[in-house]
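Methods — Computational structure assignment.
A single polypeptide chain was analysed. Its primary sequence is given first, followed by the predicted tertiary structure written as structure tokens.
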Amino acid sequence: MAVLSVGVFGAIGHGAAQPLVTVFFGDIINILGQEKDNMMEEISKMCVLMAVFGGVAIVCAAFQFMCFKYFGERMQKRMRVAYLDSVLHKDVGWFDMRQVASLPSQITGDIDNIAEAFSEKVSSSIMAVSCFMSGYILAFNAGWMLALVLLSILVLMALGLKFTGGAVREIRMKTQSWYAEAAATVEECLYSMRTVVAFGGEFRELAKFEAAIKEVQKNGVSNGLKGGIGLAWISTVLFAGYALAFGFGGWMRDNDIQNPTTGEVWQPGSIMTCFFCILIGAINLQNIAPGFKAMQGAKMSGGRFFGILETQSAIECSGSDGRKSLETIDHFELRNVHFYYPARPLIKVLDGICLSFKKGQKVAVVGESGSGKSTVMALLERFYDPQDGQVLIDGVDVRDYSVSTLRKAIGYVGQEPVLFATSIRENIMSGYPSATEKDLQQVCSEAQLTFVDSLPNKLDTFVGSGGSQFSGGQKQRIAIARALIKNASFLFLDEATSALDNASEKMIQDTLDHVSHARAGGLGIVSIAHRLSTVQNSDVIFVLSKGKVAEQGTHASLMDANGLYHALATAQQMSKSEHQKKEASQKAYSGDVTPQSQEGKDVATVGGATVRNSALEDVHEQEQERQKELLKTYKVPMRRLLTFCRPEWLYWIPALFGSAVDGCSMPVISFILTKAIVAFFLPKEQMMAKIQETCWIFLGIALANLIFVTGQHWAFAVLGEAMTARIRVAILKALFRQEMGFHDDPQNTPAMSARALEVYALRVTTFNRTFGVEVGALSCVACGLGLAFGYCWQMALVMLGSIPILMGALMLQRKTEEGSNKKENELLMLSQQIITDSVQNARTVHACGCEAELVQLYSGMLNSALKGLPKRAILGGCFFGFAAGIRFFVMSGGFYYGAVLINEGQTTFEAMLVAFMGVIFAGVGAGRCATMLGDGAKAKLAAHGIFSLIDRQSAIDGLEPSGSIPVLPTRYDAGRIEFENVQFHYPFRPQVKVLKGMSFTVSSGMSVGLVGPSGGGKSTVMALLQRFYDPMQGTVFIGSGRTPLKDVNIRWWRSQLGFVGQEPVLFNTSVRANVLYGLTDGETVSDEHLERCKKMANLSFLDENGGKGLDTEVGPRGAQLSGGQKQRVAICRALVRDPPLLLLDEATSALDTQSERVVQASLEAARAGRTCFAIAHRLSTISNCDIILVVGDGVVIEKGTHQELVALQGVYHKLQQQSH
């Protein structure tokens, strides 16, 4: 606070010094106009005094800048950390009720608004208020009668500011809400890029984004128009004030009215002092406005900020938690629990459920999809509290325990594993930051992370956004290791091994059993499972149905009961091959098929080290050097940039003409002002006529300014908003055009792309105004210098030397006021990824209990940005102070030289004053125009980024494909697939070859099963079939004509595919919109076909319990549905397309046995006549395929039918044995 206090006093002193210049100005006018005998002596004293006050202004301004800079940056850092910390400690239900996709941009925007207001904006406002008040005090001291009359200027200006300020705030609120909608659309599709591309939804997403951006554009134009009216009104009132001041002052002087302050007739100097004090005060009134506007924005953002900080979560606790600490858990119980999700209060999920289990037990929760299994786990983790009933720990209500210690006692692995955009090591350690290296190595071994050994940077390998650089099985093993490192009392597994092959699953299951018995007191394991074979050796199995426990017991007792569990188990057994026999659960496994990862998607590293602050700083230093080189060498293609607003070219006419009129206004005003000043020294009979003439000219200039400046700002708003909107659409279109390898790059994470989309377009519009600024500055300088040299070339020539000084000072002041540097912005952009990953994966963050670690990592990045802050603040303060005080010295020297010229008879008072005022006003006008420019360096870098992206040649252009559409005998002939010696590595890890000469041929209409160890290349085959990538060597052929896939029109080809992944991605809209997502533009399907697909995908749950059917909202990223329900919606989406080629990547892994049986039967019926590729770890789901390809180490190891491969007694046979 001491720093802030010094800054406030500095701003007050800086502001108070400004109107003091007018006091000196008035006294000098009196001395020069009356041409006294001791003129030079009096002028010398006044000029020295003026220079002294200039020194005081420099010191005050320097302290103002350095203190507010230091205070603002420190406050901003603390607020950012507090905001993230508070959001991360909100309940899961809080996230369910919000647009999670837009939360990261809202957090960043709110902090930016607050920081902007409480740094240079508030200091400028304090300075302006001080200047305003001291100006009016000095004006009333010089002559209260004239000052009172001139107060009307303030009233008119305030009315105008109130009107325009309210209008601009309203428009800004609308613009922010519309862009928030656009940002949510962008972030959702960027995070779901593979799904958008696979279903050809690029143009649909572009249309949604463009519609939202059009609303932003419309509100932006209104904002610009009303802002222009406000600025024009202020200038108009000021110019009209000249007429009022000189008219009333002339009338008082003409009528010999005495000045109450001096007791003498009004002198020209007193009139000038009074007028200019009022003028400076009034001018600074408009400088108060930006600060108050920023404060209004900060007030709204602060309301959200403090609202979030002050909102007390019922469950989470960010501060000291007064609830009981929990070291270990011995017993869990759900007693008569009733529950519905906050976002869906009409649908009861749990209906009086009762169950209990103890530490050391192996517990399974099974049942149909949507029966409440995941909800039970969510309540045990205390993501939610039940509406009725109790969750008990050791007989005590869970609400009585500290939630952080509760989750430390629980390890959690979800069915959709979430990793953060950092290294493998830091992802695992986030579960228990104080773990030792020995602990880390142990859990890596237990979770079978053998694939890490083949990576160049081992555990320090970067996992990518959301773990995008790894396969589903690899991500799941990392998540299991993260849970194991906690050394918890219980381990919760929500389909945690669904993405693993059978061998890996058995190894991990055996490991978990071993860990459970080996650890002191045992480890309780609670599993949600659809594969009943994985839970047969559980100590207790709870069978859920419609939110209740229908049955419970051991596997044997439940089978004997011949109830629901027996039906589920029988259904699963019936779905297996007739050659398989039901066997008891095995605890050991034999065989030589080791699930080693050979695939390993590209894993980009940052400098070959863990992604820590030091590594990030090295990267940023390199980036700074690159940007410096770009600023030196890159030339912005202005003609090309202006094509983005070509349809609006007619608006350039009022824009540039208004700029010219605005530029000329200041020199013309100075000329008329000089004539008015000189008129005061004329005889009475001439004085009033001359003053009346100048007053009418002032009013004419005011009216012209109102019309043309308003038109100028409106036209530039139209041009700027049009350019911004089209550039944003062009950027998003360019992002959609890029191949998948581009999005795999850690430099192109969804958060960074979204941030660039928001910022780049705004920055390049700086170039739009450049033309207006140049026209305004040129007309201002030409007009001012023309008048100056025409009246007194000596004075004009000397004062001309001050122009570079004044211009340089103004530009320096603007630069230091901005106070931002590249390193800060780059680090903030990268730290944005932490916010995005954390907020969008709140459940994982809560389950891991790593809120503090994420906040600490974020805080560390911000601390890196603050390095050297005191030095930057002091240096900036010196520059700012110099810029603020130099005008005192320039005016002091100018007046002294003018007095010398008059004293030596080389010029007259009028000629000297015209020359002096002409040059000064030309410099001020040109400087004012220059301050309207944005940051040219940022704009230049933004332009380079935009055109580099737009011009980047995509290896696989999905928007404007160049390939042809092959002529096929039938549409299903597209399903003939041939891989010929295909070799492939992911773009960012060329040293690890994934496919090593894979070859196979599949005839159209065949069903193909892809099996093999995790990481063997199965998912890569799917990616190549969707043409996310092209092979490095070899060829993929389609159709009986063996057309190379790379020669085929990619949009046509992808329309022939239906894809269902193991981690289904749904969009935040209705089920209907999601299942129709795969249709091409203009394509429709009949209600009968839609209903048939709905039935095939077993979507009957949509109509249960008063559901809305296909109009059910799925929530952000499908959060309102369970994993199995999401997978069924994704299957329906694929079936609606009726594709010739169906790709199923563990498409039923998240389904319960009954649902799987129904959906599997539907899929088998649906694949009749079409080609179907299915990746499966449950071999029973692909045993009746026409051909099974056993993939390992990047090649096809074996191929044949199920019977043929079993008879071969090879790899498939061993996998088959391990699946029991």
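Note: The first strand starts at residue 331 and ends at 340.
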